Amino acid sequence: MPKYSEERKEAILKKLLPPYSKSVSVVAKEEGISEQTLYNWRSQIKRQGKPVPGNKPTTDQWSAEAKLAVIIATAHFSESELSQYCRENGLYVEQIKQWKEDCLGGFKTSSVQKTESKQQAKEDKKKIRSLEKELRRKEKALAETAALLVLRKKLNALWEEDDEES
């Protein structure tokens, strides 16, 4: 198995990442490297926390982990550094800002979500109680109807016996 220098490996991986975002099969053919090796390299840099688009064609379809990695990587950047990062990685500043807002929005709404889930649980319990009450009422009515049918059959059986005797 051939060994590749870190510089060569990085140059090849840059072709897989934005702004080029070439597919693994194309890069494998261009460089004469097996696809599995490229997949392994890509998964290694993914584990290191670098944003890797993978098989998702657009940045909006990236995984939440990849988006979070970009947010963390760019958190301390100034506007010019952020713009430079975006140009190098094929992103837009607006995308990163939106991802950050979405992330923070998730944290802000967690308390709201808890209160909503508690309210929903109360409503569900109330509905369950009313449905159980209705079910008990209907079971009683069904039992009463069944008893009346049994009595009617017995009465009909008695009337038929009386008719035969007369």
Report on the architecture of this protein.
By secondary structure, the protein is an all-alpha fold. It has helices spanning 6-16, 24-31, 35-47, 64-74, 79-89, 93-165. The radius of gyration is 35 Å and the shape is elongated.
Question: Brief overview, please?
Answer:
The chain has 166 residues and is mainly alpha-helical.
Task: State the main characteristics.
0% strand, mainly alpha, elongated, 166 residues, 6 helices, 77% helix
Mean pLDDT: 84
Please describe the biggest sheet, giving its number of strands, its sense, and whether it closes into a barrel: none
| Amino- and carboxy-terminal Cα gap | 108 Å
Tell me the fraction of residues in β-strands, as a range.
under 5%
Helix content: over 70%
| Overall geometry | elongated
Number of DSSP helices?
Answer: 6
| Radius of gyration using CA atoms only | 35 Å
As residue ranges, the low-confidence spans are none
Helix vs. strand class: mainly alpha
**H/E series, N to C?**
HHHHHH
Structure summary, number of beta strands: 0
